[in-house]
Design goal:
Blueprint (H helix, E strand, L loop, with lengths): L1 E10 L6 H18 L4 E6 L6 E10 L2 H18 L3 E11 L1
Antiparallel strand pairs: 1-3, 1-4, 2-3
Length: 96
């Protein structure tokens, strides 16, 4: 079993409040979950900042190449939406 974990800082420069941030982030997370069925996504940091969010994404598979490719496609999808700007990314693969 291989577990891929991705942590991404997202910047939303157009937001003026926490409410707008939550709405933008909720929409993005739903789009990710609907496009990539077996991927888990959640906000994991920067909860009180209205222009920054940190999300965690995880995926479990049998081969590290497959796990890596799925998380790469998720990253490309987030970039392609144009809703947020991506900052720091941390990626880890755990083998069990």
């Amino acid at each position: 079993m291989v577990i891929g974990i991705l942590r991404i800082d997202l910047y939303m420069n157009g937001n003026r409040s926490l409410k707008a941030k939550r709405q933008t982030l909720k929409s993005l997370i739903q789009r990710i979950k609907s496009r990539f069925n077996n991927v888990s996504v959640s906000e994991v940091g920067s909860h009180d900042l209205w222009q920054k969010a940190t999300i965690g994404i995880s995926f479990v598979g049998n081969e590290s190449r497959f796990v890596n490719s799925v998380l790469d496609r998720v990253t490309q999808f987030i970039e392609s939406t144009g809703v947020v700007e991506m900052g720091n990314r941390e990626f880890e693969i755990i083998h069990f």
